[in-house]
Amino acid sequence: MTEEIIIAGFGGQGVLSMGKILAYSGIMHGQEVSWMPSYGPEMRGGTANVTVILSDEPISSPYLHHFDTAIILNQQSMDKFEETVKPGGTLLYDPNGIMDHPTRTDINIYQIEGSKYAAELGNKKISNMIVLGAFLKEKPIVDIQNVVDALKKSVSKRHHHLIPLNEEALNLGLEKVVEYKVESTIHS
Questions:
Q1: DSSP E strands, the chain
Q2: What CA–CA distance (Å, rounded) separates 119 from 18?
Q3: Domains contained in the chain, number
Q4: What is the mean pLDDT of residues 18-47?
Q5: Mean pLDDT of 120-136
Q6: Is 110:91 a contact under the CB 8 Å cutoff?
Q7: Does 78 fall in a domain?
Q8: Under a CB-based contact definition with an 8 Å cutoff, are residues 115 and 96 in contact?
Q9: CA proximity to 142, closest of 28, 53, 57
């Protein structure tokens, strides 16, 4: 099994930390892992993405042009990465701020309203964990317990009191993800 993933959005949406936690989870699952971040000079508000590869075999290169899965958190990332998903692959996105929804019919598309549910839980910073839970519902490539253990390793000890909230967010993502159907246009 090899899963090649791009996670993309604005800085401050937890893109890089979602990738890091997924990578740690893969290591705990005994997989080969690659984590390669890319971001602009801005700390918040600029674009950010991370490529994560999880595999049972050695990984030859972290540089990819096409992905098994794209996790998209903003319109600019949708514009840039929708076409990079391999046919038969998966695109998961948070519709918050997305004006042009995906149009491809040769991939599996799922929606999770991570921003909305995070606001309902009272902490917008956990939207990335809601999205990660949604991803793992559709592609269970690591165990949720490994993700919780990865949180303990990647989050500073002063934030460990937030781990139960993050676990709740993961479970909410598992529960609330929905399939998105592209509307077909009839041409006359």
A1: 2-10, 32-39, 47-55, 67-72, 85-93, 108-111, 178-179
A2: 18
A3: 1
A4: 84
A5: 94
A6: yes
A7: yes
A8: yes
A9: 28
